[in-house]
Amino acid sequence: MTTEAAPPATAAVQSADRDPTGVRPGAEPTAVEIGRAVCDLFTDGITARRSAFATEFADRIREDIERAFEKARNHPGGAVGRGPNRYYVEIHPEQLRDFVELVDHPWVRSVCEAVLGTDYRIVELGFDVPLEGAVNQPWHRDFPSPAPTREEHRLTSLAFNVTAVDTAEDMGPFEIAPGTQWESGSDFTHEMFPDKADHPRYAARAVRKYPRRGDISARSALTIHRGTANRSAASRPVLVLGVDAPGAGNDAHHAMAVTRAYWTALPERVRSHLQARVVDELQPIVQQHTIEGLVMGDA
User: Fold this and answer.
1) Mean pLDDT highest for which of 78-82, 219-223, 283-287?
2) Residues 6+ apart with CB under 8 A from 227
3) Which stretches of 65-169 are assigned E, i.e. beta strand?
């Protein structure tokens, strides 16, 4: 598939996303599967592993998200608006019961190593919540394109997304414009938001995603994307895991911390990749995504 190929129709994408793969949750990926995932990331800018986890895993994530969301909205700066009725919240690993199962999943580890190198760093944990009444976001990327991507065609970070619900058409599905991770963005507002005159170009190649509980995706956060309007009465919470190559620097924009007892109890394989402050007591995180909130409209 080339990056210039026209995307399939939405109905076809929905059908493909919903087809069962027969993959056993937690199964080790094959070299062919990882090779295909890497190819997807360098062409379309997004890939996925269907049924990576049991549906019960996603249900627990939803419970943890709902608990953390309630706390964040009652704390000044705890939740940042990403448009009307749409929020982002960064959390600490200890707020997610299955954090270790998530970051130590064989597919997650293998994709990180293949794209970012064996010394990859886990720098962000959070979630997006489009509530009823959330509107279409403007097309955007999550941060400016770094020099290694612009000049060397190298990806220095990945965003993993885990849906906490089975996504339906009226719930405001995630929409992405394949292949746009390589656009320099030098003429974008804040190097993140393309001019409105270019929006039809992204819309023409856009693909909507309909993940189900247990699925996980990985994408370059530089690939132009948006959340669409949530016309249902239900929220569509999505967990976000941000991972960097060494030196990428995105950790400077996040505030993950762990208590000393939690850090000590982590498996060494997880501890060696986790970029987090070790503290005596966790404090609520004040969100730092101010530019996105400003441009998308403070909720």
Assistant:
1) 219-223
2) 82, 83, 86, 128, 130, 134, 136, 137, 172, 174, 175
3) 80-81, 86-90, 121-130, 157-163
